[in-house]
Amino acid sequence: MRQQHHPHAFSTDNDINDEDNIAFSFNVLFLQEMERRLFFCLKSKPGEIIDRDTLITQLWPGCDKCTHDENLIQLICKLRRSLKMAGFADAITTIRNKGYKYNIDHDRENSFA
What is the pTM of this model? Predict the structure, then answer.
């Protein structure tokens, strides 16, 4: 039987099944649209610090930074909870006064089972 995927789900096989699915193992977690977008922003530069302004601009283009500063903090918390459920509790690090860093490299994603 083929497993059904929610449009905003990820599992950890490291395949991307379509534009909305993130693959990451046998666990399937459901991400809302903004969590999924944040995940891809952070994952695009593993190990690098991405500053808050860059993330806000990518997630809410054309909007005032101040308006979305608190939204970014809440979104980071939600994404951390989802990644923790998949066994990646340390996936995102806050770098004080700088931004955020995605800590999971490709090999570690593939070794998770």
Answer: 0.72
